[in-house]
Amino acid sequence: MLEAELTLAAMAERLAKSADYRVLRRLVHRETSAPITGQSTKIGILLDVETTGLDQRKDEIIELGMVKFDYLPDGSIAGVRDVFASFNEPSEPIRPDVIALTGITNEMVAGHQIYEAAVSSFAEDAVIVIAHNAGFDRKFAERYWPIFQHKAWGCSATEIEWRKHGFEGSRLGYLLNGAGFFHHAHRAVDDCHALLEILAFELPTAGAPALGVLLEQARKKTMRVWAEQSPFELKDALKRRGYRWSDGSDGRPRSWYVDVDESKLDDEIAFLKAEIYLGEVEPRLQVLTAFDRFSVRA
Q1: Which of 65, 147, 167, 199 could be cross-linked to 189 through a Cys-Cys bond (beta carbons 3.0 to 4.6 Å apart)?
Q2: Helix axes 188-200, 210-218, angle to 10 degrees
């Protein structure tokens, strides 16, 4: 068996060196290890939730997965500290369509509960929490476990321009294949392990690990620009520009809005003046950082 594995490894290595083939290796989870001493490392957490639906105000979490890891200043992954995986039984049975989507059944979650003390203990020493759709995961996580309201967050799906770095898209499966791996996801924590390898991948266009690129972006301020009372007939122009609609049901303005880098604020206001309001405008602005970006509180 060992000889066969060595032969396969040699074949894969040879194919990988050819311009005519791409080799995908099965993702193997990194083993947990003791923190590295003598190096300037920080602690991050990769987080993924599975839920009974998309509405963070009423739907419920049915699974939480987290991987805690150490990283170096350049974004290199130094090691995995710990792993957290748990089911949570919701107040009502899981719908058939959710079971089909997640693979999580009512029998799997029966009698399970995710305790706040356990989550808080796991997350308390992390300086950043990263999710592949932080705009979704953060809102649910904050509702269940207040510790996440006080953490910096990063989004691996939106805070890295994956296409600019040669990837076909930002879906987790695309990125994992682009990094040279495949996996058969079954649990939330499996996706966290997959994301760890994606963030460890060195982007040739950046000369740095993907995590380093994400951290650089997460540290920047962004500006939320509200195009309040914009003409209805210009909604398509706003949508093409990347604006999203807020219906006001969560306490935010009932308006189109967009998030832009602080350095691009003047360009955005110039667009509103020239294309939307046809005159001077002083839009409502919000300053967002990693501590409130993607939060329902923003």
Answers
A1: 65
A2: 100
258 vs 256: CA distance, rounded Å: 7
Give the CA distances from residue 287 to residues 160, 223, 261, 262, 265, in Å, rounded to whole numbers and listed in that order. 20, 5, 10, 9, 11
Structure tokens at 183: 């996996």
Q: In this predicted structure, what is the pLDDT of residue 3?
A: 57
Q: Would you say residue 2 has pLDDT above 70? A: no
CB 78 within 8 A of CB 59: no
The reported pTM is: 0.89
- Give pLDDT, residue 60: 98
- Statement: residue 189 has pLDDT above 60: yes
Q: What's the pLDDT at 12?
A: 66
The 3-state DSSP class for residue 139 equals helix
Q: What gap in Å lies between CA 132 and CA 162, rounded to an integer?
A: 12
Burial state string for 243-258 with b = 16 or more CB within 10 A and e = fewer than 16:
beeeeeeeeeeebbbb
Say whether pLDDT at 34 is over 90: no
